Automatic annotation (TrEMBL):
<dbReference type="Pfam" id="PF01618">
    <property type="entry name" value="MotA_ExbB"/>
</dbReference>
<keyword id="KW-0813">Transport</keyword>
<protein>
    <submittedName>
        <fullName>MotA/TolQ/ExbB proton channel family protein</fullName>
    </submittedName>
</protein>
<keyword id="KW-1133">Transmembrane helix</keyword>
<keyword id="KW-0812">Transmembrane</keyword>
<keyword id="KW-1003">Cell membrane</keyword>
<feature type="transmembrane region" description="Helical">
    <location>
        <begin position="14"/>
        <end position="38"/>
    </location>
</feature>
<comment type="similarity">
    <text>Belongs to the exbB/tolQ family.</text>
</comment>
<keyword id="KW-0472">Membrane</keyword>
<feature type="domain" description="MotA/TolQ/ExbB proton channel">
    <location>
        <begin position="55"/>
        <end position="160"/>
    </location>
</feature>
<keyword id="KW-0653">Protein transport</keyword>
<feature type="transmembrane region" description="Helical">
    <location>
        <begin position="82"/>
        <end position="104"/>
    </location>
</feature>
<dbReference type="InterPro" id="IPR002898">
    <property type="entry name" value="MotA_ExbB_proton_chnl"/>
</dbReference>
<dbReference type="InterPro" id="IPR050790">
    <property type="entry name" value="ExbB/TolQ_transport"/>
</dbReference>
<feature type="transmembrane region" description="Helical">
    <location>
        <begin position="124"/>
        <end position="145"/>
    </location>
</feature>
Length: 171
């Protein structure tokens, strides 16, 4: 844990904002994983039972009800996607903020000591690069999960629509 504290000390205060954003992002990712791998099957099962219990599965009204159920499920499946996208977009920007604050520190050292003190400039350079790296790593991991969740939502919406068939009557 000493390396963790050292990492945050060298990265500067912006790294704490990246950590907080990362924490929130991973809470949302775990919530979506729980939804797609645990709750999805329960919701599908409940909707299939409700659909089979209906006596009317052929009318226009039944089609609208089915469409509303599938749409409501899709809204639930994609509920946190906008927030995930926002957090993913914020992470590189926080990294850029860390770069700017680190470079300001480098320029302060240059103004105070001149160009000859490379050791004094090194902490500012570390403060400039570590938040950028951390913000990009968090954003890349978030992008992977967001695209995966979008595919899972689309696929499970189609599965649900297939499990709630419209019974055609030919008479």
């Amino acid at each position: 844990m000493i390396w963790f504290a050292d990492f945050f000390e060298r990265g500067g205060p912006v790294l704490y904002a990246v950590l907080a954003t990362s924490f929130l992002l991973w809470v949302l990712i775990i919530m979506r994983l729980w939804f797609f791998y645990i709750e999805k099957n329960q919701i599908h099962g409940r909707l299939m039972t409700d659909w089979r219990a209906r006596t009317d599965r052929t009318s226009r009204n039944a089609r609208y009800i089915r469409q509303a159920w599938v749409g409501r499920y899709y809204l639930e499946a994609t509920r946190t996607m906008p927030l995930l996208g926002t957090l993913i977009a914020i992470c590189p920007l926080l990294g850029l903020l860390g770069t700017v604050t680190g470079m300001i520190q480098v320029f302060d050292v240059l103004a105070a000591t001149g160009t000859g003190n490379a050791r004094a400039m090194a902490s500012g350079i570390a403060q400039a690069t570590l938040p950028t790296m951390a913000g990009l790593v968090v954003a890349l991991s978030g992008l992977y999960f967001r695209s995966r969740f979008q595919r899972l939502a689309d696929r499970s919406k189609q599965e649900l629509a297939d499990k709630l068939p419209i019974v055609e009557e030919f008479a």
